Amino acid sequence: MTAVDFSAISQDIVRLSGGDGGDAQAALVVSNVQTGDTLINNYTTGNVKGTSSSSTLQISGNLPSQTFKLELYGSGVGYTNVNTAATDHAVETSSNVTTLAIDSSKASTDTSTTANTIGGALHANAFAIKNTSAQNVTITGNKDLTINNSTSNVGFSNGVNVNAGTFSGKLVIAGSDSNDIIKGGTSADTIYGTKGSDTIDLSAGGADTYIFRPLISTDKDTIKGFSSDDKINVAKLGDGSTGSLAGVVTSAVASKETLTDDRALIINTNGTAGNLFTGGSATVTDWTDMTKVAAYLNERYNTSANTEQVFIINDTTSGANKSYVINYIEGGTGTIDSGELTLVGVIENGGAALGTVNVVFS
Q1: Which has the closest alpha carbon to 227: 256, 190, 202?
Q2: Whose CA is closest to 353, among 318, 310, 323?
Q3: How far is CA 201 from CA 139, 163, 185, 296, 324, in A?
Q4: What is the rounded CA–CA span in Å between residue 189 and residue 38?
Q5: Which residues contact 251 (CB under 8 A, 6 or more apart)?
Q6: End-to-end CA separation in angstroms for the chain
Q7: CA count, 13 A, side-chain hemisphere, 123
Q8: How far lies 180's CA from each of 52, 128, 184, 206, in Å?
Q9: Whole-angstrom Cα distance, residue 106 to residue 42?
Q10: Whole-angstrom Cα distance, residue 201 to residue 191?
């Protein structure tokens, strides 16, 4: 175990450099940090890989409410863990560090496309960042960065507020299984949905992708700042095998249609009577009311046992500017019932309805 004590003076800077960080190392314990302290990973390449049965990088502060800066400056550098226990995290913040400031940057001569990484393929119950104390994370710089446990696609142990609004590299990130707030950067980000009712802000720009988690809870995510070049990935919805788009509905029909299993369906409607089915009487003024939504969809669609569907409903009411992602798993009733519908996402689309280019399945 390597220990670095920051208690001696204010605004210490410790640099890890001079070789390949891919060499396995014991845990690095950084203690008594205070706002202004910085740890720079400046290895030539490779992640620091902890070999002791604990978190690879462990950070604690000397007084409450400290901010610690973690700088990744290289090509494909960062922190992972080669151990296989649930306690073997990549980075851990414990007492008194409430904000972790991550700077992922590259030299002007760096042409590598290898992202810096915190996490990697860890134990399914371990985390890229065990943020016991650090509920706030800021991300700056210009070098692509991944923060995720690729085994579970859960990045943090506790609810987190991530602000990467000025970050210009490509960000791949997963939140926690609690309620998170994640603001992406200016490039093409990939954000994994997790448990909890998360708020995802894509307004900084870039062609971003939000990946919906499998239906393991009834939590609802809110996606803000969605633009015409952003995408949602719904492959894991339904029963986890939603494979393609069934079509786009833009007008009412006079004869009922039958849903196709394992498909996503885009519906443009204002929720008024007859707007989805000619002669229909059902209406929807609140697309979060699954009782009303079920009655509205039932007028148009037949269903059968074991049918799974993802409805992406663009509310075309003037000024609504929202789309709703609703998961449907038929429960043996032969009709669409409110208990079979789960609202998993509300997308603030700025008035641009989601179309075929905005829905992916890979």
Answers
A1: 202
A2: 323
A3: 14, 9, 9, 30, 16
A4: 26
A5: none
A6: 41
A7: 16
A8: 30, 15, 13, 21
A9: 10
A10: 10
One-letter amino acid for residue 203 of the chain = S
Cα dihedral sign for 317, 221, 205, 111? negative
Across 141-170, average pLDDT: 97
The answer to whether 173 and 180 are in contact (CB under 8 A) is no
* Cα(39)–Cα(102) distance, integer angstroms: 10
Largest CA distance in the chain: 78
The residues near 320 (Cβ < 8 Å, ≥ 6 apart) are none
- Alpha-carbon torsion (192, 193, 195, 201), positive or negative: positive
In the structure encoding, which two tokens stand for residue 325, read together? 């992602």
d(CA 338, CA 308): 14
Please give the pLDDT value at position 21.
45
pLDDT band for 50, please (50, 70, 90 cuts). Answer: low
Tokens found for residue 292: 């009303």
In the block, which residue shows the tokens 């609202």?
343
CA distances in angstroms from 32 to 9, 97, 98, 135, listed in the order given = 10, 10, 13, 18
Per-residue pLDDT tens for 13-24?
Answer: 565 554 444 444
b (16+ CB within 10 A) / e for 192-206:
bbbbbebbbbbebbb
DSSP 239: T
